[in-house]
Amino acid sequence: MLELIREKMKGVFATVIVGFFCAVFALWGVESLFERSGQAQPVATVNGEEITEPEIAQTTKVMRQRYIQMLGGKVDPAFLNDQMLREPALDSIISRKLLQGQADSMNMTVGPETLDREIVQDPTFREDGKGFSVDYYKEKLRSFGITPTMYRVQLQEQMALDQLQQGIAGTAFVTSAQVDSAAALAGQTRSFDYIQLPVQNVMDGINPDDQAIEQYYKDHSNEFMTEEKVSIEYLDLNKNDLQKSIQLEEQDIRASYDQEAASFKPSTERRAAHILIETRPDGSEKTQIEKIRMQVNKDNFASLAKQYSNDKESAGQGGDVGFTKGETFVPEFEAALASLAAPGDISEPVKTEFGYHIIQLLEKRDTAFPSYEERKADIEKQLKQAKASAIYAEKLDQLAESTYSAGDLAGPASELGMSVQKTTAFGRRGGAGIAGQQKVIDAAFSSDLIDSGKNSQAIELSADRAVVLRVNNHEISRPRELVDAKSEIVGKIKKEQAATVIRDKAEAIKKKVQSGVALKSIADEEKLALVSVKAKSRTAKDVDAELLATSFKLGMPANNSISVESVLLAKGDYAILQLAEVNDVQLDKSGEEYKAVQQKLDTSTGNVEFSLYEQQLRQSAKIVLQKNNADSAEAKN
Description:
Layout: H1 2-8, H2 12-27, E1 42-46, E2 49-52, H3 53-70, H4 82-105, H5 112-121, H6 134-142, H7 148-169, H8 176-187, E3 189-197, H9 199-204, H10 210-219, E4 229-238, H11 239-244, H12 250-263, E5 268-277, H13 285-295, H14 301-308, H15 312-315, E6 320-324, H16 331-338, E7 350-352, E8 355-366, H17 372-404, H18 410-416, E9 421-422, H19 438-444, H20 447-452, E10 459-462, E11 465-475, H21 482-514, H22 519-525, E12 531-536, H23 545-553, E13 564-568, E14 574-583, H24 592-620, E15 623-626, E16 633-636
Antiparallel strand pairs: 1-2, 1-15, 3-12, 3-14, 4-9, 4-11, 5-6, 5-8, 7-8, 10-11, 13-14, 15-16
Helix pairs in contact: 2-3, 3-4, 7-24, 8-24, 10-21, 12-17, 17-18
């Protein structure tokens, strides 16, 4: 089970930190995890447990970040606005609460020792390829504004949910007949011939007259509209800019350093390596650990760890599990390590819940408080951040108050020592700079600001940045002049007419082939190339995807029948495809391909089982969704 969990947890830092916590802290700060506004109304309840608006906002932020990352940033912001993502975000939270409740009811948890082990063996917390370092671990979490306790809570919850999913999915199974069938289909190849009808050749022969162009313009007038645009002016409050302007006195930095030095408590750090032999039902681990004990010395410890240790993660490092201050590992391990006097010393076998360990002390060092010069830059940064945060909070209140009833932004800007900035006109898909922020786009196109001409409320773009904006100019969408749209209209007419012509031609050729006319004869008649494709699998990359998919949809010709289909290709061309051969594979049940198919089937079947399990939880749960601006609620049982 530990190995399964470890495999699942390889990306846990990215999942827990980058996904969930970055969103939480970017939007709401540390306090959001522990405090809740007394005025916050639940958006929904799941078996009596409330879901609040901040939870949905956090999850929406996570989803947006993941979609943008998945699509390489090439995504229309309109498709990732809060309204579009709200429903899937809420659904995700409901699922997690249901699963968490189920895990709790089944007393599924992960012990502190297992958490310690997973954290220590996570490569994320190994500095420059070295072993685990407590200081580096804390520094890594601190860079995201997270404490070790908070990380452990989320890690424990995620690992428990993983156990639940593995337990349910692990009950699924597939029969050998199903695997044989799937492997046969996966290995099957197909051969086919095709000709391609270029749509451009047809388009080149179409020349719509002025009457046709004008009629198309009238019939499709809603397609030829100018884009609605706005330009805005805004005040931008940015904590990073405030921090850059802060000047500190040397004495303040020195005073902070002296406080740190006064509270510093020296401690000893020990770097350990171990050889772990897990307990076995027959008790044979005692014999093996004794055999290793008789062989081991400081020179061969690493090689024996690689050869024998059941802790595969550390075995590859010669057993190295990094530094500890006495609080990283289970007590028995820490006590044995502390008893070793000098680097190279090796312990007697030590029994813990994981099995038997032989421990070697690799390095021992006493922590010393760094010099003033070593700490100065970090202290200066911390002091500036603290001052900038205080100034930012004060200025944010002033910004909101001064712009609330002002008729413009010039007055508040002068009062606060800020400058009014402007954007060029942009549409609902956003623009450059601040106009690319979805919250800014939503506010700029809101009827409240467009119709009233007033200033917006302070819009918090992140924990460190807020803006107040007003619409400077609004360009409504209006019909374009025919002369401006003419070339576009001609292109549309040619494309639509050509599509009809080429489709009808493709269907006519298809019927000819079905009647017995050879595809080669038609190719010669139409002066087209006949392309032969030989023995391609479903995953072939060197064939057009539509052609390949169609070839696998067609049935094998029987009794001298002809298996042929017309295919619309991505750029508007049509192909007429004739299936030539279906080539079945000889199954090798010991081969890697067969095993890969079996594993894929096991995984997909397990996922289906878990999905059905989730559905059952939803059906038996009491889920109440509060309707917006209504006194009633929708209840799902």
